[in-house]
Design a protein that fits this description.
The complex is a heterodimer.
Chain A: H1 5-15, H2 21-38, H3 73-77, E1 83-84, E2 87-88
Antiparallel strand pairs in A: 1-2
Helix pairs in contact in A: 1-2
Chain B: H1 7-16, H2 21-35, E1 42-45, H3 47-63, E2 73-77, H4 104-111, E3 115-120, H5 154-161, E4 167-172, H6 178-184, E5 187-190, E6 210-215, H7 218-228, H8 243-251, E7 260-264, H9 265-268, H10 274-289, E8 293-297, H11 305-320, H12 339-350, H13 353-366, H14 371-392, E9 398-402, H15 417-421, H16 428-433, E10 437-445, E11 448-455, H17 461-474
Classes of the chains: A mainly alpha, B alpha/beta.
Amino acid sequence: MTIHERDIDKLCVLARLAIDPDDRRHAQRDLEGIIAMIDALADVATESIEPLAHPLDATQRLRPDEVTERVERNALQQIAPAVRDGLYLVPRVIE
Amino acid sequence: MNPVATLTDLAAGLTAGDFSSVELIRYYLDRIERLDAHYNSFITVTGELALAQAAAADARLHAGNATPLTGLPIAHKDIFCTRGVRTTCGSRMLDNFIAPYDATAVASLATAGVVMLGKTNMDEFAMGSSCETSFYGPVHNPWDTSRVPGGSSGGSAAAVAAGLTPAATGTDTGGSIRQPAALTGICGLKPTYGAVSRYGMVAFASSLDQGGPMARSVADIALLFDAMAGFDAKDSTSAVRDAADLAAAQGAATSGQRLTIGLPKEYFGVLADTAFARVYDEARRTLEALGHRFVEVSLPHTPFAVPTYYVIASAEASTNLARYDGVRYGYRCAAPTGLTDLYERSRSEGFGREVKRRILTGTYALSVGYFDAYYLKAQRVRRLIRDDFTKAFETVDALLAPTAPGTAFPIGQISDPVEMYQQDVFTVPASLAGIPALAVPCGFHQGLPVGMQLMGAHFNEPRLLALGGAFQRATDWHLRTPNLPG
């Protein structure tokens, strides 16, 4: 499998990563190596095998629909990079 | 005081009144301050907090309401959230992150009276097998400081091996407790998936991540596991276990069952170095002399474990790490020009190269057109790998295997990611199967420690701890120490 620079660019858009040209070449070479390694999976016959999402086959546990937690907005916003009046600040998205 | 004393020894000293917890903690804080420049095993040392916790522990010891762990020191891997003390996960992304709560594992140990010395260095976001990817610089192996301690819990492993703490916590997604334990000559337990709560443990790959203890002896591992394990409603994947099982974890470490132990041929068959392989023959003979019987078993899908792991772990990592957006906590780039720029530059400047590599790999495996070929395929092979173990445990009580394919390698030696991923060849199968695995020192090769791995069926920790404990009563590999500076 050949990975092109445009493939890296597409993955970077999906993953919200900016990557400089030098790193892009590294990433391209590394990803080709990693994909060659994981392509070995194609050799395993898995036609009738169900995917395993949880090693103990557990399913999602449910709890009674009761309020047990409070939102600690002030405490949680202490560690935010930019807040005002209880709101998280981001660059303007609507002009 | 002996820097490489076990928790069991130190507990006896506290009970006998040979020293107080405050004296014990001062001793280790002093060692960390004087010696950690050689190893870089700590990211944060919490001296003041430790002395306050030690004073409280001394009060409990005097009042007679202490647990077996009260007043003993521990270091937490810097992946466990600690209220009021920063949790970096070895990343610039979380360099300024102070969690508003404690991880359940941290809280459980604190409730038992264990004193936190500080937070240990690690591969960034636990992604690595050498502790070279940390934002805070590489960790050095106490047996040879030009070599790696393994990873990702390499700071915890190096700190225990160097006698800077008698015990530490670690996390294991694909071998991150067991491989560093092996490379530094200490013990480490990766419990059954769900046995120790993941609440407050920074997420890497949620279907694989599992916290566990690292210490000098199996008896110490049993003590710590007893305090760390248990159901936690705050972790949606926490396993519901029988209370009797948990109580047995400590008691079983002294029982004398004769077991049938499997030697997986796919593991031993790929060991290239015969002198290295002979260390395991010696360990087998020791266990045979204790009355255990060995048979060869086959785990036929073993060669596919590394590719399966790197698809699943990278896919889950790319999803988990989507939360780092420069908005709610963690690193935020300077002067963003727009929302996309804020996301992209915060993530690109905050994450290191290996983390970005895994995010890109995971994004690729989950993207349109590849999801079935990679992610679903890997989940199907994961079932085959788990079923190999289930079948093996129909005829054997436990498995013995190498922990790592070799001893500690020089810092900077492995630069190719695929070559580095091969370090995990013997540890990822148990992670994928969710079974417990205990790393125990079993000898030396060219002056460096070698570890074996005992694997058991789900929730068979008591049996593994009993077996490892019996091995350590017959050997002294775990008591060997590197040359430590004064």
